[in-house]
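Subject: Predicted fold for DNA damage-binding protein 2, 432 residues

User T.R. writes:
Posting the sequence so we have a shared reference for the thread.
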Amino acid sequence: MAPKKCPETQKSPDVAVLLKSKSRRSPQELEPEAKKLFVQGPVSSRKCESCCLLAELSSLQIPPRSSSIVRDLYQQKLGKATWPSLQQGLQKSFLHSLASYRVFQKAAPFDRRTTSLAWHPTHPSTLAVGSKGGDIMIWNFGIKDKPIFLKGIGAGGSITGLKFNHLNTNQFFASSMEGTTRLQDFKGNILRIYTSSNSCKVWFCSLDVSAKSRVVVTGDNMGHVILTNTDGKELWNLRMHKKKVAHVALNPCCDWLLATASIDQTVKIWDLRQIKGKDSFLFSLPHRHPVNSACFSPDGARLLTTDQNNEIRVYSASQWDSPLSLISHPHRHFQHLTPIKATWHSRHNLIVVGRYPDPNLKSCVPYELRTIDVFDGSSGKMMCQLYDPGYSGITSLNEFNPMGDTLASTMGYHILIWSPEEDGSLKDHERL
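User M.O. replies:
I've generated the C-alpha cells; pasting them so everyone works from the same file.
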C-alpha cells in the first residue's frame, strides 16, 4: 500500500535526494532510516511525517540521461550542432551522474570548525582546508599517506582565505584573523608577508591572487582593500566599503576586473587600472542583506552573490547593475556557523550551495533536510540535491575540483569528499 501523501509536503520532481547506499533501495527499506530523522514533535505525529518523507523520496525523479552525447559530438564536428547545445547535453549527462554521488572520504583533523578550502590547481585529489584555530591541512585523499598538518595559533587565528600558488604549487597564500596575508610552503615556512595589521582590532577576511598579473588582493574587517604584487610591494590601500569586506574575487579571464562583497549590503565591481578612490567603482550592486561572497563564473561572464539570509543572485557581464536571476534559498547567518557561500561548478553552468532550512520562510516544509543544492546558472531552477543521512549537518562550503568530478564540503569540524559511487570504492579501513 502506497504511503499517504501529506498535503503540506511539497514535491520537487526535478530534485534527486541521494542516500548513502551501494545499491538503490526501495522505500520500504528506507523507512527505518527515514524515521530516525524525526527526533522532534509529538510521538503520535511521527509516523505520519515519516510516511510523508517516504512518499516524497520515492516520488523524486532523477534528471533523464542524455542519450545523444556521441551524436552531438559528431554533429558538432560536422558543423551541424552548436557549441551551446553540446554543452547543454554534457551538463545533462553530468546531472544524471550526480545521482550516484556519495560521501566516500571524510576527515575531522581540527579542534575548531573549518573556515576555508581550496583545491590544488593541477592535482585533482588534493585540497587545502583551514580552521577557525588557524590550523591548515593539505590533504591528498587519493593516497594512504598522512595529510600535511600545519598547526595554527588557536583562538584568534581563523583562516579566512586560501589559494594555491599557481607559479609554485607547493606553496599557498592565506589570509587570517591573526592579522596577516602571507605566502607559505607545505612545511609551514612563511615565505612572504603581504599585509600585516599589527593590531588585534584589524584582521583580513578574504583574498584572491592573479598568477598572470602577479598581484594579491585582500580585504579587511574595516572595509579596506589592499593590492600588492607577488613580490610584496603595496600598490594601493583604499577603504572601498563602509564595513567588513567579506569576499574579494578577480575575474579569471579579465584579471583587472575585481568584485568586492561587504556586510554593508553592497557588492562593487572595480577596474584595477582605473581605481582612484572609494567612488571609482564601475558598478555598485545593492543587496537587501549583508553579503557573504561574490565570485565570477569560470568563463568570467557572470557573477554569483550570496547574502546572509535567503537570496542568491546571478549577474551577467552584459548588464552588471541588474541581476539576471534571483534565487530564493535558505542559508541565514548564524554566529557559530561558517558563513555559507554559493560557488560555481568548475566545468558546467551550475551553482552549488549548502541549505540551512529556515522555518520562517513560506517555502519551508516540515523536517526539511540540510542538503547540498545544485541550481542551473541560467534559469535558477533547482536541478538536484545531495544528501547523506550519515552526515546531516549544514555544509557551509562546497566546491568542485578543477576537473569537476569531485566535490569537497565542510560541515562543522568535518571535511567530506563526494564522488560517483563507482569511483568511491575505498574500503572502510582505507578511509580517514
